[in-house]
C-alpha cells in the first residue's frame, strides 16, 4: 500500500487523487497557477474537501479560470455568481478573483505570472522534510515575502497562509511528508 501524506490517508478518493496527481506537482502555466491561487483564496476559512467537491462548478462558473475572460466580468456576472449554488458565494472572494485576474492580465501578460511566482525561488522547488502534517507550518518566510509582493502588486486574498497553501499546491514548495511516495 502506498504511503501518502497524513491528510490524504483517509478513505477519500477525491483527496487521494488530488494528492497523487496534482498537489505539489510543479506547474509553470500561468492559467493553472491562477486556478490554484483562486481555489486557495476560496478555501480560506473552509475545508479543502469542500473546494474539491465544488471544483468542477468553479471551473464552469469562472470560465475554466481563463483570467482574460474573468478580468472582464461586470456587476451582472458578479450577481450571477452570487446566485450560483455550485460555488462558494462569498462576494469578497468573487470580487478578489476578478481583481486578481485583472492584475495578471495587465501586469503579467504572456505567462509572466508564472515567471514572477517562480522567481522567488530562482525557478527551483523548495523541498522540506516534515514527518507529519502537524509539523508543516501554516506559513513560512517565503510565504510572507510572496504574500507581501502579491499585495504590493494589487492582489487580494493573498495573505501568508493562503499564499503558503498556493505555493504548496503549485509545487513551488514540496511539503510531501518524508514517508510519502510523492517525496
Automatic annotation (TrEMBL):
GO process annotations (BP): base-excision repair
Keyword Metal-binding: yes
SUPFAM superfamilies noted in UniProt: DNA-glycosylase (SSF48150)
Gene3D superfamilies linked: Hypothetical protein, domain 2 (1.10.340.30)
Keywords, in A-Z order: Metal-binding, Zinc
GO molecular function (one): DNA-3-methyladenine glycosylase activity
Positions with a binding annotation for Zn(2+): 5, 19, 176, 180
Pfam families assigned: Adenine_glyco
Name recorded for this polypeptide: DNA-3-methyladenine glycosylase I
Organism of origin: Weissella hellenica
Amino acid at each position: 500500500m502506498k504511503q501518502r501524506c497524513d491528510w490524504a490517508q483517509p478513505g477519500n478518493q477525491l483527496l487521494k487523487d488530488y494528492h497523487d496527481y496534482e498537489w505539489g506537482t510543479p506547474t509553470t502555466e500561468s492559467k493553472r497557477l491562477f486556478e490554484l491561487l483562486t481555489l486557495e483564496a476560496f478555501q480560506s476559512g473552509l475545508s479543502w474537501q469542500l473546494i474539491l467537491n465544488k471544483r468542477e462548478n468553479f471551473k464552469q462558473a469562472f470560465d475554466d479560470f481563463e483570467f482574460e475572460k474573468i478580468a472582464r466580468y461586470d456587476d451582472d456576472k458578479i450577481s450571477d455568481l452570487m446566485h450560483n449554488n455550485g460555488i462558494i458565494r462569498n462576494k469578497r472572494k468573487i470580487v478578489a478573483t476578478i481583481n486578481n485576474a485583472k492584475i495578471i492580465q495587465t501586469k503579467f501578460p504572456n505567462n509572466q505570472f508564472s515567471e514572477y511566482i517562480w522567481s522567488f525561488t530562482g525557478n527551483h522547488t523548495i523541498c522540506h522534510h516534515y514527518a507529519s502534517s502537524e509539523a508543516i507550518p501554516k506559513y513560512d518566510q517565503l510565504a510572507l515575502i510572496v504574500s507581501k509582493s502579491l499585495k504590493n502588486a494589487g492582489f487580494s486574498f493573498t495573505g501568508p497562509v493562503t499564499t503558503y497553501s498556493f505555493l504548496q499546491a503549485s509545487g513551488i514548495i514540496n511539503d510531501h511528508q518524508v514517508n510519502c511516495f510523492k517525496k
